[in-house]
Amino acid sequence: MPEKRDESFSKEHRLSKSTEFRRVFSRGKRAATRYFVVYSLPNRLPIPRLGIQVKAKIGSAVKRNYIKRMVREAFRKMKTDFRQPVDLIFIAEKEILNLRGSDFEEEFRKVVSRHLR
Question: Please, are residues 56 and 64 in contact by the beta-carbon 8 Å criterion?
């Protein structure tokens, strides 16, 4: 029987403190598309973590929350595929509103792929 994957997105998988965000911004690598920017930095924890920033200029609260749900879902599905634990910060750009969910997941995987197995 195949091994069951942990596909939860618990609090330990989130970047929440401003010091954690500053560390990733200052020392991490930046990868950008026209839809979003991702900062990444390997961490010393046993798990990858994700921080999300969606500016108020992007749209209403409903649209911003939808974007955050898409990002969390994509990360949740691929968190076991990372070669080593990494801290990621996702910053949405206004163009992301024109992107469908499946296209977003593909674009996100492409940007994060250098950290995947």
Answer: yes
